[in-house]
Protein: RDD family protein
Amino acid sequence: MTSDVTTDASAYPGERLGLPADGSGSIGRLGRRVGALFIDYGAAYLISGFFAWDSMAILAIFALIQVVFLPTLQGSPGHRLMGMKLVRLDGAWVGPWRPLVRTLLLIIVIPAVIWDADQRGLHDKASGTVLLRA
Structure:
């Protein structure tokens, strides 16, 4: 017996947003995101080490990296090195406030690990952004 129940499941992350399944313009997947996070956090760790700052300084430097580079380079250094870019859902410039909201929620961690079917964390949903492969 088969079921004719329709589900809201997508064939791939980003399909509901009209994005391609893979390649340029597709959703940045978990491996790339984690790699970018390690690069950015590692950079913040190294920078703070030059000044012998504490763990709060590392977090502040990480946040500064995000807030400065997201609107200027369409992604943090980690995002760009991992082949991703941050865009608004309508494709326009992210502006200054979206990176700030996104970063504050990213630092809290919980919003970043709760995803929807399109692999967008709550930090991206709240800021109206999506992380795509460049």
